[in-house]
Amino acid sequence: MINILVISDNVELVSHMQTLHKKLKGIDFKIDYRFSVVNKNPDGLLSLGMTCVDVKDTEAVASIVNNYDLVISAHCKQIFPKELVENVRCINIHPGLNPYNRGWYPQVFSIINKMPIGCTIHEMNEHVDHGAIIYQRRVDVYSDDTSLEVYNRVQNAEKELLNEYFKSLVLGSYKATKMKGDGNYNGIEDFNKLCELDLNHYGTLSEHLDILRALSHGEFSNAYFTNCSGDKVYLKLDFIHRRMK
Ligand code: 0FX
């Protein structure tokens, strides 16, 4: 029996993975789903039958190591500790094309620094988004994309990889390849810094459009400046397309 634990804070990925169990026909397996304890809004995950786990808790880690053969992290809000990744096979589904823009919100940084973007399924080690690469898929970025369009394209690519390789991931029948270099990493503090617009920043209009579209993601309030009354004023880009025919 292969015992699998999926730890995810992403409703869409979990819903998708739950449709893939049929791909494991003929394999003796059990899959449990958990969300991370730091998730402040787990309603959607609770409605998928999930319960919570704290991967920073020593007893929880020991229990995972003793009871599971494979842990799949699918957009988990907690970073897995060394004790977990070194004692059970852990793989991560990451919304970025490692080693480029590892860490937070890869597509935001790719829109600005033009590094490739896509998704990566990789073995986990103690560093963030860093282990050997199992499967990857690159996606395009267009000049009229905001962060949201690129993110949706990345998430579709993640689902495609899962459709194609779920069985191989469960069985461990893949060849993982060491990353070519460490690439670069962006933390949440880099994202927060980007959000605080510097109104004296010099650059081309194209560079400024890139910053604003990278920080535009549906209903999220990201980019802001502070007005003369000391209030934060948030802004985002909304592209309107007109066909010229
Ligand atoms: O599932 P996910 O892409 O993110 C999760 C975790 O929340 C995150 O901590 C972890 N690093 C990642 C691998 O998995 O969903 P999300 O809703 O947190 O973010 C989705 C996108 O939404 C993100 O790429 C950029 C955008 N976003 C998100 C937040 C919270 C914003 O533009 N502003 C925000 O404040």
UniProtKB/TrEMBL annotation:
This is phosphoribosylglycinamide formyltransferase 1. It comes from the Bacteria. Belongs to the GART family. It catalyses: N(1)-(5-phospho-beta-D-ribosyl)glycinamide + (6R)-10-formyltetrahydrofolate = N(2)-formyl-N(1)-(5-phospho-beta-D-ribosyl)glycinamide + (6S)-5,6,7,8-tetrahydrofolate + H(+). Residues 190-239 form the N-formyltransferase dimerization C-terminal domain. Its EC number is 2.1.2.2. Residues 67-163 form the Formyl transferase N-terminal domain. GO terms for biological process: 'de novo' IMP biosynthetic process. One of its GO terms (cellular component) is cytosol. It is an enzyme of class 2 (transferase). Pathway: Purine metabolism; IMP biosynthesis via de novo pathway; N(2)-formyl-N(1)-(5-phospho-D-ribosyl)glycinamide from N(1)-(5-phospho-D-ribosyl)glycinamide (10-formyl THF route): step 1/1. One of its GO terms (molecular function) is phosphoribosylglycinamide formyltransferase activity.
